[in-house]
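fwd from M.: "can u put these together and see what the complex looks like"

so here's what she sent:
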Amino acid sequence: MFATRERACSGYLLEYADTHLWLDAGAGTWQNLLQQIDYRDLTGVLLTHRHPDHTTDVFQAFHARRYGDQGEMPPIPLWAPQETLDRLVAFAERIKETFDMRAIAAGDSFEHGGARFSFYDMAHPVETVGVRVEYEGAVFAYSADTGPSAAFAELARDADLFVCEATLQDSDGEWEGHTHASRAAEIAASLGVKHLLLTHLPPARDLGLSLTEAHKASSKVKLELANDGQRFEVGV
Ligand SMILES: [Zn+2]
Ligand SMILES: [Zn+2]
């Protein structure tokens, strides 16, 4: 996928308590992030896999935090699969001085700012983790990029907000590594998801069709298409 005039690639800002975590950093999301917060207030970055549509804007945070007028800032955590960390360092070696590089893998979990993060293996051609975040009874889940064969149950069961990729439309054939909007709706409904946000939408397509196909597949789950700049309160 790629950024268009209307839409950035994949990137989300998770905010709770004093935490401002950038989850995936695809092209265009740095400027969207700056619409929401001061980059000096970021507390961490989490990248689900190494594909450029989820990672390349992290270099903007690297330059801003290293070379901005405020002077070099202390490192903040950057979590990603090991191969993603290796690629970032290969591209800009000093990024490992600006970020505290921490490898994550499916099966890992940790606490950050009082929230529990858990990671799951997704069905994508490179190592990719889905992310479940639990905070004060609220559940947020993010599929990253994945085909429909991934084990979604642990990732997204009873999620208050499930951000799920919906790259494909019904006229597309099966394409292991990505999911149809209609299939995402079926999965969300089967797992008791309260609110489904369809993301990673196909550039230059009629996105109304993605929405229609998802609605047709399941009328049980509340769902909508992701748009740049949207904000959601989770679990309230
Ligand atoms: Zn990908
Ligand atoms: Zn992608």
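replying to her w this: The two ends are 32 Å apart (CA to CA).
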